[in-house]
Amino acid sequence: MELDYTGWKRGVGSGVVAGIIWGWVAMVLNTISGVFPFESSLFHNLISFSVGGAVIGIVVGVFLAITSKWLPFKGFFTKAVFVSTSIWILLSIGGFLLSAMSPWRYNALGVQAFQGLVLALILGCILGTVWKVYQRKGV
């Protein structure tokens, strides 16, 4: 089996761009909702959310590049939303299990979980859009 480096490059590249945009959107949505209290200044949070968003975007973009051949959907937009939401579900299950094992250390909060689901859907939408743009430009 030969690796498709074009898909990997597109996954990493579109993941970085989508992740940074997503980080900024996440910061704005969190400011509006107030679910997670910020601990730093706006400038520090902007850098943190940009870098963190880029890392998460790369992970989701690479998973999208790897699994896109086997997913039952036609468009990359739908595939991106599915992959980002699936990763969120797996991480949420892990968080729930940690919470069940050590409830005094890990707290499962419904509001945070809901915001995480919404943000996973948004990341998938942004990644699918950026992927389409990269695909049209031949990047």
Description:
The chain has 139 residues and is mainly α. Helices cover 78% and strands 0% of the residues. The protein has 4 helices and no strands. α3 runs antiparallel to α4. The protein is globular and about 50 Å long. The model has no long low-confidence stretch (mean pLDDT 87).
Q: Estimate what percentage of residues fall within beta strands.
A: under 5%
Termini separation (Å)? 23 Å
Largest sheet: none
Shape: globular
Total strands: the figure is: 0
Order of helices and strands: HHHH
Counting DSSP H or I runs of 4 or more residues, the number of helices is: 4
Rg for CA atoms: 16 Å
Low-confidence stretches: none
Share of helix among residues?
over 70%
Secondary-structure class: mainly alpha
**What assembly state would you assign to the polypeptide chains in this entry?**
single chain
Mean pLDDT: 87
